[in-house]
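FORM 12-B: Structure-to-Sequence Request
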């Protein structure tokens, strides 16, 4: 039951994009098409799960025992950067079309505050290894859900006649705000 609560809280109640405002750059930049959003969500899910596992292990077995907890941010950033490079190489070989579609946003996973934020949050929340992994995957699912829903809305908006001043980013920001308010409806279901 504890893992279900972590899952629901991470996906709906404390959605990393819509309530914690982490990962906004890819959320706004890659969410013009549903296919691209799904690909970005898959890449973020993979990197987030692996990065959380590796950074948790480093924190508990290297940094904390040696009194190097102050190096947490630097070490976590280096681990995340290495993992993103690995994902980039794999995507280039496995799915060149997705690699091209993600474009500049794939390297932005390196500086995606969602990845670093979750790696730090699992340490702050004092989760064990399994809880950290469930939280990371659930957060990535929530990130993907928010991006796909937002991309679907943006695809519909692109077919709609909007006033010139509202086209593009203004409509996207208003839509993101309304979507965030919709996700606020889940608050109070569970508390993590």
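FORM 12-B RESPONSE
SEQUENCE OUT:
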């Amino acid at each position: 039951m504890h893992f279900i609560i972590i899952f629901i809280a991470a996906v709906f109640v404390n959605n990393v994009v819509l309530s914690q405002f982490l990962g906004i750059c890819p959320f706004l930049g890659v969410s013009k098409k549903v296919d691209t959003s799904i690909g970005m969500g898959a890449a973020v899910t993979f990197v987030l799960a692996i990065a959380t596992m590796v950074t948790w292990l480093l924190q508990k077995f290297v940094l904390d025992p040696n009194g190097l907890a102050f190096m947490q941010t630097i070490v976590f950033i280096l681990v995340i950067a290495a993992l993103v490079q690995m994902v980039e190489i794999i995507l280039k070989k496995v799915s060149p079309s997705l690699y091209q579609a993600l474009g500049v946003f794939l390297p932005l996973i390196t500086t995606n505050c969602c990845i670093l934020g979750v790696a730090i949050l699992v340490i702050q929340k004092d989760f064990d290894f399994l809880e950290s992994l469930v939280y990371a995957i659930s957060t990535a699912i929530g990130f993907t859900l928010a991006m796909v829903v937002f991309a679907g809305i943006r695809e519909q908006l692109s077919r709609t006649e909007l006033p010139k001043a509202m086209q593009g980013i203004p409509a996207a920001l208003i839509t993101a705000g309304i979507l965030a308010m919709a996700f606020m409806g889940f608050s109070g279901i569970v508390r993590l």
